[in-house]
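Duplicate of #3305? Posting structure anyway:
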């Protein structure tokens, strides 16, 4: 495992240093899970957009048509 450093205010740093090791481990695991979930959400979001872009393109809705619609407004 690799160590990383984050910057927090003095109050948070003090609380972290006073936190029992067992609780720190739980918080570290929650931090890891949060990062993993955000990466999955990001991947899912971009996959969704790509899928919708392909569907629109198959139906003839492309950048040229989109620009025409935008310019009409």
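Output from current build:
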């Amino acid at each position: 495992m690799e160590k990383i450093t984050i910057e927090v205010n003095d109050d948070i740093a003090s609380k972290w240093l006073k936190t029992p090791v067992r609780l720190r481990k739980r918080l570290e695991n929650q931090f890891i899970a949060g990062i993993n979930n955000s990466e999955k959400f990001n991947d899912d979001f971009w996959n969704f957009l790509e899928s919708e872009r392909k569907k629109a393109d198959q139906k003839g809705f492309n950048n040229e048509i989109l620009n025409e619609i935008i310019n009409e407004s």
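Confirmed duplicate; merging threads. Residues 21-58 form the longest helix (38 residues). Helices lie at 10-18, 21-58, 63-72.
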